[in-house]
Amino acid sequence: MSDATTFNRSAAAARWRAGRYVIPVALIVGAALVTGLLMAWGRRQTEPIRVGVLHSLSGTMAISERAVVEATLMAIDELNAAGGLLGRSIEPVVRDGASDPNTFAREAERLIAVDRVAATFGCWTSASRKQVKPVIERHGHLLFYPVQYEGLEESPFIVYTGAAPNQQIIPAVTWARDNLGRRFFLVGSDYVFPHTANAIIRHVTTAIGGEIVGESYVPLGARDMTDVVNEIGRARPDVILNSINGDSNAAFFRALRQAGISPGRTPTVSFSIAETELATMGARDFVGDYAAWNYFQSLDTDENRRFVEALRLRAGRPTTASDPMEAAYLGVHLWARAVEEAGATASTSVIQMLADQSFAAPGGVVYIDPATNHTWKTVRIGRIRSDGQFDIVWDSRRPVRPTPFPAYRSRAEWETFLNTLFNRWGGRWVNEGPAQARSQP
């Protein structure tokens, strides 16, 4: 046998021996990788589904938003008690917007980018929502917004479970004209919601033969109401239409009573005072005045009785329910139904299943309008009682289709209106300059 033959056989044997041992090693490594991936996938399928809860736990808006957090958490607890979603529990991550739009935007970014939440439930003021909106849209994330607002907005990534203007503001003004008087004084906090609401009210008032006799704004968190109440006294309106937000309402109504302006003489219709605020501020200065909402705790339905009782059991004491609380609660359940139908928590999958979702809410059946991502809702007006509850004096009797952009101006004209406010206020949705008696573009 030649040296060459011996060499070739030795080389072949070496290659065989190498292959005999290398191939199994490769298989073992590959199997380990696959096993690791499967284990990681399995962990993801059993890890909690994290959701963001973003509201003001401090600052002037905490009086309203803390209770909304509790209603949101109660809905999450109900889902977990029923087995969670997709075989996984739901874990809320609560962040404080601190009544500041910029803080809301930072916390929304943190919830999405750091906490990796599947959806966010939150915001109250339109200033906070508008600051959060670009963050939500940039990430393709989902926000459920639970408060009545001024409209003039649509987003595929925001579900609006509170009222659009035609589900609160417009019918309330028409009702006030028919039942309380035709001369209106408009007062509000100095940010985008009240300014826009009052622009809409001016159109409605013209259409129904009413008259605006004054319009004034106070800063968010204001305590000194002397000037605005003096203006109201001089104007002698039949009705005050109030879009002040937060705990400033306590100072406003106290100043009205000190000036001798009472519901018997000049009733007030409010758009942001509900049972929660009355429980905190005390109902004494508010008795006999009115508020427009879609839900009141005094509703006599089985669904509402269960809702109120669940809140009571959760708090361990008698407690109050309000429209934004109910809207937050039903938003969680609408999201959960869409997740179950999608079989996934990714926003792109859930969005496709949200259209046409409905839910038998405490205030009645609600339905997500696929064209606008707003909800069909029943409109109601209540009169404040001494116990901080409302006697319902009018309702629309059936859910009203949402119209985010009222027909008084074109969509382009409304968007120009908003841009004018934003630019006038230095690229903000809150006027941080001197309050203005009349400030409508």
Describe what you observe in this structure.
With 441 residues, the chain is α/β, with parallel strands linked by helices. It has two domains: 49-163 and 300-377, Rossmann fold (3-Layer(aba) Sandwich), CATH 3.40.50.2300; 166-299 and 382-424, Response regulator (Rossmann fold, 3-Layer(aba) Sandwich), CATH 3.40.50.2300. It is built from 13 helices and 15 strands. It has helices at residues 3-46, 62-81, 101-113, 126-139, 169-179, 192-208, 226-235, 248-258, 275-281, 302-315, 323-342, 347-354, 411-424; strands at residues 49-55, 90-96, 120-122, 143-145, 158-160, 183-189, 211-218, 239-243, 268-270, 290-293, 358-361, 364-368, 375-376, 380-384, 390-395. The strands form three sheets. A seven-stranded mixed β-sheet has the order 7-6-8-9-10-14-15, with helices on both faces. A five-stranded parallel β-sheet has the order 2-1-3-4-5, with helices on both faces. Strand 8 (239-243), helix 8 (248-258) and strand 9 form a beta-alpha-beta unit. The chain is globular, with a radius of gyration of 28 Å. The chain starts with a helix and ends in a 17-residue tail after the last helix. Mean pLDDT is 91; it is low at 1-23, 37-41 and 437-441.
